[in-house]
Request: fold
Amino acid sequence: MEMRLRDIAFCMGLGALAITKPALADQPSATEHELISPDPRDDLAMHVVLDGDLPAAIETRSGVLKAPDPRAPTSPSDPAFGSSVSSVQSDPGAKFTPDRDTRRPDVTPTADPFTPSIAPFERLAAFDQIGADYTLSVETPTTLPLAARSDIAHDGSEEQFFADLEVDVRPGAKVRIPSVGPDARVVHAHAGVAGKDVPFRLWHDGADNWFVEGFTRARIRLVMELTIARGAFGGEIAVDKWNDFPAISALPANVQQSAAIGARQIGVSRQMPPREALKKLVSYFRSFADSKDPPTTTGDIYLDLTTSKKGVCRHRAFAFVVTARSLGIPARMIVSETHAWVEVHDAKAWRRIDLGGAGHATREPTTSGPRFQTPPDPFAWPSNANRGEDLSPNASHASNGGNGNGENNGNSSSSSSSASSSSSATTMSSASPAASASGSIGTTASTSSKDERPTSKITLDLGDVDTRRGGTLKVSGKVTADGDACASLVVDIFFRDAKHHEVSIGSVATDDKGAYASSIVVPESVPVGDYDVIAHTTGDTHCGAGISD
Reply:
């Protein structure tokens, strides 16, 4: 569809949009001028605060960042944590069940709710207990209040973030939400509906999973200022003696016995220094390879995965945690909507370790903000590794200081060309913790090299188009395939210029009837010029990829 995007307003049209500068009303022939966008550095200098005492800007390693608007409207068509799209209600008992599908999956990146962006490491579910059947769960699921602490002093050892989430809350339900990392702290938080403040409570359990509870049934916008120790994102493991590790619960006897076999194969034991053991563990599980052929079944899925060295991120993280905990190393498995990794407690704090095995991104993430710069990785990466950060926008191995060992941090794909449409992250029971419109984490369905799904047909209509950059663009339409409605499908909206360069401006989701309608904020960074407005979808298991006419 053509439209013209102005600094002041849109002009009606059918398909393309053009950005122009406004002429002065009383001087038609006057020289046109570009409006000056607000500078968050001014807000920072003047200590401007928003609703809930949220700072209007924060200073981070990624620059001075503007706060999300706590009064921005929510949309019933947008994916939200706790929504019917994700089937998440109250799920503190969610579990992880290991599987044998070791193919590298196709994954659909979603919008990162954090600024700066940490995708795909949005910490959505953590597991620190292993059952006799290898099911992972939370050892202490009891939740405790997660209170905001405005007295936190920021120093060079901490990182700051903004969080902006849409959550469907209801009385008596604790809805799972993501955090930026282990032991993150809330400085300020605000929840509202249509600009009106609403009461809420934040909770966390023994594995530091986060939840929000509302006191009315509503879709809220939850905006938070967060702080977290920089070491939580990685770095050197500071432990010298085995007895320095915090005590952990014993594994079931059968799991401990199998883990001892796995440890012998890997060549790790408590006879070596703990740092050396951790280095060998990370090296071993990073060397796993995805495979279209599942490991041979012996009745023990841990040993099958460990001895075959087959698997993607969720298999590596699962087997690592079993092996590490058998040695007395506090370790837990973490998943997001698109990735899985581990955390290890080094007697001082929990630290993130990415074992690789990331899936193949089906499209670029919708996140367009600055990227968080992680600490240097002290562990070596093998060649042809598929790291978690390879799923992020503008992924760069140099951005985190390399691997610290002179190893090749290549990100080429592994030898297997087969892919699964399931997420690389995990197979969940109870309920998927994700607010994904493209299906739950637990969905597993294979795809062939030929896409046999019916092509999606997308209609796109533009509503009230009188807006400026930084204002809203109303989009609506419907998605069908072979005449059937495509429900719960992600539709990405783009501006395309005359050179066919595309700029993502946001995503919407279809309802049960395949319809979508939303107001998308037009980025202030979009240059003046003419654009087409188009809608894409990568589809799902029932509806294929498609683009608007």
About this structure: The chain has a mean pLDDT of 79.
